[in-house]
Amino acid sequence: GDLDKVVNLLLSLSGRLARVETALGSLGPHAPTEDKVGTGQGGTRRVSGHGTPCQSHLSHPQDAKDLKEHVGRREEAVGAMVARYLPAEHLQDYQHFVKMKSALIAEQRELEEKIKLGQEQLRCLRESL
């Protein structure tokens, strides 16, 4: 369960970061600084008023890196504990399961994004007809 949550959080953070970088890139180099970074309600940060406000504790790449490292340490600790109770072949199955689960979660998220994009494109095409 924790693996699902962490992988989804990391994917969400990387998606937010990509959207912020895209928004900043579309402003151009001559845009005023206050257009690039402003403060919205409740002390949350907005980039050019686009998208969803990012909580400051979720908007830094270093936080995502720290979280990933924490998950790695926890995975090692759980793996060591599991290794004490499982025979070698079952341990390999467990390790394969964890790797595949992470990969499948990431793939599922990517497919969901592609579906949303396709639905949006279809909606725009229908409106243009």
N-to-C CA distance: 45 Å
Q: Let me know the number of strands.
A: 3
**Average predicted local confidence, pLDDT:** 75
> Which residues sit in consecutive blocks of at least 5 with pLDDT less than 50?
38-58
Provide the succession of SSEs. HHEEEHH
Number of helices: 4
GO molecular function: actin filament binding
Subcellular location: Cytoplasm, Cytoskeleton
Family: Belongs to the shroom family.
Main location: cytoplasm
Give a written overview of the molecule.
- With 129 residues, this protein is mainly alpha-helical.
- It has a domain of 70 residues.
- The chain is built from 4 helices and 3 strands, in the order H-H-E-E-E-H-H.
- It has a 3-stranded antiparallel beta sheet.
- Strand 1 and strand 2 form a beta hairpin.
- Helix 1 runs antiparallel to helix 3 and helix 1 runs parallel beside helix 4.
- It starts with a helix and ends with a helix.
Map the helices and strands:
Layout: H1 2-27, H2 33-36, E1 38-39, E2 45-47, E3 50-54, H3 61-85, H4 88-128
Antiparallel strand pairs: 1-2, 2-3
Short description:
This is Protein Shroom4. The protein is mostly helical and 129 residues long. The chain contains four helices and three strands; from the N terminus they run ααβββαα.
Feature tags:
mainly alpha; 3-stranded antiparallel sheet; single chain; 129 residues
